[in-house]
């Protein structure tokens, strides 16, 4: 593709590379550098006064302590729940495991801001469960679901997606012969798990633990929505400080603290990848068979835990869906009657521009960003795959900068850098424009997307390209007809994750959204405020259900061969139509 004698193609590639380098420098390197410079270089000289202010601020110190508390405890709680869930549906014989496997997928379509709002609706001061219990215990503390416990519960069950996706797929690949061999040698079920199964899964467990540490350290939505006044973390505080021009240096310092630990995190991940252990590669590998729990007490406890986990997932999820079809009075009281059900909430969303406008804005932003990122990373991954030299390594490292530093720091950098004219941006002010948020979405998606896309390219069999070349096919034709179809499944999966992840984004959006074009994340967060209008909760429920439907469709299309099934259905429908037309013509 790149050693082609066709001058127009080579010229196009070089121009694209130049534009890519300009974009990386302007939208990744400079904003992050400007945050650091403006933080420590004030009034013409270097100053560390912002660090002293942080040290003396009780609120800042408390937020730091809470963030690190989440960072160290979330990997423990989520790993316990996540590993047990996978064992319940894939390793042990648990009655109803097929239903449980569907329920445990709920965080995939009901995550982020949605799950926080769902838990608040179920257990908050005016929540469904709280109202129900208050009918029997009027003196109950309506603010019981707040603080560290509430944040940890939401994050623990909301972050199990790492285990449901990665850990589950890995445990399915375990060679059953190794388990049978251990059992034949007299090993107990616990010894088989601890000495045979878990050692093979250690790399993926380590990766999940590290990612959970990152999620706990940078948690924003959960502390903001269910943390209450007494449990706030760094990220919400950074947002508050960043909205005050005189306090942006403090916001930058806190962001740099997060960034420092992100860099340590990357180092740990790289060491984990280099020293990792991998699964058994036996040529006669046998699929894993579910194990019957021999100890009756353990069997009962595991069944109860499996159903308890499912119940915790289901209550907020079903409550959101059911009450989205009721009027706001029923939502406020929690008392359902037949006359309470209505489609008025959905009718309003579909007909009122103020209601459906944020929904369309989110789809446009998330869709455009995911599509642009897919194109950029495919191009860069192809460069790396074909050239693989110092230049492509430099581009790859530069594109990983957003992964090293927290998204909040990057958003703050965009605000600081492009609130004034700059010659490298042709003296255009981007702060307050609609495009600055799209840029932010694209940049923060780049590292992980490039990581997986590059892996997909290196998984392509080079003999396919060689065969096409021997048959006389050009480089460009070979790329689009041979190489690209091979990586399309990975690209679609990444598109789905990126699209779903930004559809109801709040963390970045809160810094950069245009006041006249709010997105769903902003609206859902404002509607969740106790001072919001009486019908705000009803709109939030409808938004959540619509997002659940969209997320479910995307997940089905990508992860459950939805495209293949649709293709087969359309092909079969076309054949049936052709048969019907032939029969009619013969008749």
List keywords for this structure.
587 residues, 2 strands, mainly alpha, single chain, two-stranded antiparallel ribbon
Description:
By secondary structure, this protein is an all-alpha fold. It is built from 28 helices and two strands. Residues 276-284 have low confidence and may be disordered.
Shape label: globular
Number of strands: 2
- Category by helix and strand content: mainly alpha
Major sheet attributes: 2 strands, antiparallel
Name the quaternary structure. single chain
Average pLDDT level: 82
Strand order of the largest sheet: 1-2
Secondary-structure element pattern, one letter each? HEEHHHHHHHHHHHHHHHHHHHHHHHHHHH
Which runs of at least 5 residues are low in confidence (pLDDT < 50)?
Answer: 276-284
Number of helical segments with 4 or more residues: 28
Tell me the fraction of residues in β-strands, as a range: under 5%
Helix content: over 70%
> Mind telling me the C-alpha Rg?
26 Å
Distance linking N and C termini: 55 Å
Q: Which secondary structure elements does this structure contain, and how are they paired or packed?
A:
Layout: H1 7-40, E1 41-42, E2 45-46, H2 49-56, H3 58-91, H4 97-103, H5 106-109, H6 113-123, H7 128-134, H8 148-158, H9 161-171, H10 176-184, H11 189-217, H12 221-226, H13 234-242, H14 248-274, H15 296-323, H16 328-333, H17 344-351, H18 353-386, H19 390-399, H20 401-404, H21 407-417, H22 435-458, H23 462-470, H24 475-503, H25 509-512, H26 520-527, H27 536-559, H28 562-586
Antiparallel strand pairs: 1-2
Helix pairs in contact: 1-14, 1-21, 2-14, 3-4, 3-8, 3-9, 3-11, 3-15, 6-15, 6-27, 9-11, 10-11, 11-14, 13-14, 17-18, 18-22, 18-24, 22-24, 23-24, 24-27, 26-27
């Amino acid at each position: 593709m790149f050693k082609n004698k066709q001058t127009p193609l080579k010229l196009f590639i070089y121009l694209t590379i130049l534009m890519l380098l300009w974009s990386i420098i302007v939208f990744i390197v400079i904003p992050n550098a400007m945050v650091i410079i403006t933080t420590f270089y004030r009034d013409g000289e270097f100053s560390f006064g912002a660090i002293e202010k942080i040290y003396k601020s009780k609120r800042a110190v408390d937020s730091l302590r809470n963030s690190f508390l989440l960072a160290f405890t979330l990997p423990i709680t989520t790993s316990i729940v996540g590993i047990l869930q996978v064992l319940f549906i894939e390793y042990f014989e648990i009655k109803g495991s097929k239903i449980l496997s569907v329920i445990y997928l709920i965080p995939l379509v009901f995550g982020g801001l949605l799950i926080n709002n769902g838990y608040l609706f179920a257990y908050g001061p005016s929540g469904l469960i709280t109202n129900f219990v208050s009918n029997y215990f009027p003196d109950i503390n309506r603010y019981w679901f707040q603080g560290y416990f509430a944040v940890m519960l939401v994050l623990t069950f909301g972050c199990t997606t790492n285990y449901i996706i990665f850990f589950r797929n890995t445990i399915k690949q375990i060679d059953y012969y190794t388990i049978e061999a251990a059992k034949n040698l007299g090993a107990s079920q616990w010894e088989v798990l601890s000495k045979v199964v878990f050692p093979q899964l250690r790399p993926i467990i380590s990766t999940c633990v590290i990612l959970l540490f990152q999620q706990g350290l940078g948690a924003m939505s959960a502390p903001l929505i269910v943390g209450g006044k007494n449990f706030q973390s760094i990220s919400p505080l950074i947002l508050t400080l960043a909205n005050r021009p005189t306090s942006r240096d403090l916001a930058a310092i806190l962001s740099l603290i997060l960034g420092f630990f992100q860099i340590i995190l990357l180092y740990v991940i790289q060491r984990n990848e280099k020293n990792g252990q991998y699964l058994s590669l036996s040529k006669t590998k046998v699929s894993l068979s579910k194990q019957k729990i021999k100890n009756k007490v353990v069997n009962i406890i595991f069944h109860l835990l499996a159903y308890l986990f499912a119940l915790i997932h289901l209550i907020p999820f079903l409550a959101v869906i059911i009450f989205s079809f009721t009027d706001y009075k029923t939502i406020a009281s929690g008392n359902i009657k037949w006359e309470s059900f209505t489609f008025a909430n959905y009718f309003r969303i579909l007909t009122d521009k103020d209601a459906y406008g944020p929904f369309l804005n989110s789809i446009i932003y998330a869709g455009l960003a995911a599509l642009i990122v897919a194109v950029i990373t495919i191009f860069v991954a192809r460069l790396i795959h074909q050239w693989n030299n110092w230049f492509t390594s430099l581009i790859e490292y530069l594109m990983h900068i957003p992964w090293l530093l927290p998204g909040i720091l990057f958003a703050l950098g965009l605000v600081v850098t492009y609130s004034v004219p700059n010659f490298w941006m042709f003296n255009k002010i981007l702060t307050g424009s609609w495009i600055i948020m799209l840029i932010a979405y694209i940049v923060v998606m780049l590292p992980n997307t490039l990581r997986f896309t590059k892996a997909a390219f290196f998984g392509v069999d080079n003999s396919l390209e060689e065969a096409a070349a021997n048959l006389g096919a050009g480089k460009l034709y070979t790329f689009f007809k041979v190489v690209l179809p091979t990586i399309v499944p990975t690209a679609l999966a990444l598109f789905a994750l990126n699209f779903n992840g930004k559809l109801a984004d709040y963390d970045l959006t809160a810094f950069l959204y245009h006041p006249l074009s709010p997105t769903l994340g902003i609206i859902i967060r404002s509607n969740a405020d106790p001072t919001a209008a009486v019908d705000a909760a009803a709109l939030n429920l409808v938004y959540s259900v619509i997002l659940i439907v969209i997320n479910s469709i995307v997940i089905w299309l990508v992860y459950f061969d939805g495209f293949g099934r649709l293709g087969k259905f359309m092909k079969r429908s076309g054949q049936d139509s052709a048969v019907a037309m032939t029969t009619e013509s013969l008749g």
